[in-house]
Batch of 2 targets.
Target 1
Amino acid sequence: MKQQSNFLRCNIVSSALVLGLMMLSVTACTAIKPGRLIPISSGHSYLIMIDETAPSNAQVRLSLASAPVRLSIARNGDGAAISRVTCADGRAAAFDGLSWVAPPDCREFTWNVALEGIDHTGIDASLPVASYSLNHRYWLLPERGAFLRAANSGGMVKTTLRLKGGRTIVTNLMFPSADQPPYYAVIGSEPQQEYSSSELRLRVFGKPPQYPWMNALHNDVLARWAIWRRDLSSGKAPSVIDWVWVEVPPDAAPGYSASAGSEAIISQIKLRPGDPDAEAKARVVIGTSAAHEGFHTITGAAGQAWPAWVNESLANHYAITAAQAFLEPEDQKWLDVFYIAREVRTPLLNAQSRYTAGDGDQAQVFYTYGARFWRKIESILTIDSNGSGRLAALIAASNNFSDIDLNSANELASFLDLHSDGKAGPIVRCFLIDENCAVGTERSTH
Ligand SMILES: [Zn+2]
């Protein structure tokens, strides 16, 4: 069935994960690199000004340490919302069809961003544009919709949101470098709910589904994120994760979609009428997807620089593990249907090569076959477990595999052999490069 073969699809723009199902389609996109608490010493900073009385316009000011030759549209953007790019002294930057040519010796630029009001139209949560909701008082600022770049380096973003009553909310966040997942933030004044653990807060914006179990689900994922923050992170860790629920466009097909970036998770759901299992499916997909995204945010903050095959396969491995713990027994069958049983099997490094070349569908391999790879590795490791297992202990101890070339089957096999009495090598070679799979036991899906 087409829906089965396409049940997970990655949008390379923001590493989106899609489940196209009978009742649901799921997009869960990779978050990474939250900037809170990360000190950045850089002369590269954005100041974004938004006034609630003129909500459809943001003014951006970019200050640079040295004068650039040109400003380019940030990753995966089309520049459609950006206008009036000028040097701060009033000299206009000329658009040459691809980028803006900077006036000589200019180190400070301004531009306007047109923000789309989404209260009545909804928005695709898997690929949001720069937008706002007055009903729920938040603004979405994805990198692709609002930013110009002078270089690939990271920097800072300071956003000032002036509310109607005169109060101003100031938010300081990191701006990711070009080799990190894109900037993605929710700037809001009124979270619908807030959940706190001793180390981490979850703020929920917008209009979450009104299921009686949503409160428990939010608490479950926050607790899980806090555990991962302790066990999987050997470096910086986020203190806040924002999650915004946006309206579904009226003509959208039933399904669940989400995406995430450096600071936030954006999601939406539309149920298929008449499906008696709709609520159970929603519970499984929302909970598992949230765990997946939080994993990215937490490990991203710690500074991991994993290739996509590792990043996505680990995120789903841990999301599945978390879901198995917090889902009720009657929901487990949907976890199996959506995340485990329908495995897409391609040697992981082959899939990585195709993914790097632009074939986002290869992420299906990472989410399924890749997740099973880590389940097998977890089962043979000998390192002492921490609260999240032996693999988590190894990730933390190795500083996120920082000295390992994860695109080398031999290098990863050698490393994991050291922590598995030599059992890992055949598994690594089978899953990564399809070598000698016949002698292993890797062909079962569980
Ligand atoms: Zn992901």
Target 2
Amino acid sequence: MVQNALFKICGVLAFVGTTLASEKPNIIFAMVDDLGKEWIKCYGAENIATPHIDQLGKTGMRFDNVYSMPQCTPTRATLLTGQYPFRHGWVNHWDVPRWGRGCHFDPKKNPSIARVMKSAGYNTCIAGKWQINDFRIQPKILNELGFDDYAMWTGFEAGNKPSGKRYWNPYIFTKEGSKTHEGKFGPDLCNEFILDFIGKQKKDTPFFVYYPMILTHGPLTTTPHKPKASKAEQFPAMVEYMDHLMGQIIKKLDDTGLRENTIVIWTTDNGTGGNSNILNGRRVRGAKGKTLENGSCEPFIANCPGLVPQGVTTDALSDFTDLLPTFAELAGAKLPEGLTLDGKSIAPVILGKAKDGPRKWIMAMGGGSATYDKNGRVINIRKYRDRVIRDKRYKLYIENDRSSAKLVDLEDDPDELINRINDPKLAKIKTRLEAIEKTFPAEDTSPRYTPLAPQAWDHVQKNPGRQPGLTGLPSNAPKKKRGKN
Ligand SMILES: [Ca+2]
């Protein structure tokens, strides 16, 4: 009898285990706008309180070596497509609602991470900032790209002054259209939208949330918690309010019983824009737009009490091209066909099934404004954009003419001040990193799209088509190839 009862209990446990293992995990991907590690306490930041992010790190997996791209639109297109900027074409920044010219993130010519998740049966939503389509011209675009529902700051729409407001009195686009919300704080509205979406979910259907947060990009602002913050107090107040919003998301997952099967990934789209702070005893200046580590190597935390190992710090290499294949593997989705993807899935690392990831190197490139050719088509300002390639220790800067400019030992020189390009001891490392660069196309693609109709507000440049050649040095490379050795 006892044996029989025990058998029955074991049988039930085995059944429950099988059921849980076959459930698809929910995924929430939260990405702050313009924030580096030097503002996150669990990465070693001082003078700041980020208790909710710290708790995610403490009860999850903290990555040290994850690259975004150095600026907004290159990062966002990379995340959506699983491709590097030289392949998807958004190498430069092109602020579509502000500059237009018929350029847009074209759903017919690009993969979309949200469509991949939809194909695996996920409910999907997005809230925050988009910037690569103009919702006035393409009101259904987010549906076309795979999002069921949305609440977005429109970005600054040229000729529409109220749309410039992202913080107080924000201009928000939903299925009901776009309007100003007097007296409201934009980040609150987007967060409430996500809390509401989570509250509507049922356990039998998985969900995917893409949360490109409105905070902590400029302009500086007061927050609901610090309504009287002085100019000097405003940036830390914005960081702390972002942390508070993430805390609300986690609380909602706890309250709804969804936490155990929801993988939360929290990261940022590029480094801080200008402010500096102390990180592990060093002063670190925000390097948005640059391929320095503090411009491109972002804080990145994965957390799910039921699925992701707790209290782990990893040096596994990854960059934002890996997100699409990672989410596809977690969701059991097929990858888009007929396209070259640059990323590889790091799902085994996140789930604690592999100690290290599949990547031997990572890459970052892009930023600065694009231009347009004589036909009015948006193109990159250079045929080949400078970039950085790194492994866990060494980092190579490549110039616009594909030559190597700078080699840095990140372990000994975190501020990247010493150029080791001529150090004979590092010759093999230089050759190995250069060989990776040689696998890239000789010319970067420009954005892929079928042009939309011209608009009255389309941006006109003084000197369109400037410098589409192989001139100039990357912003972080030394003027001459001088080295200490
Ligand atoms: Ca950004």
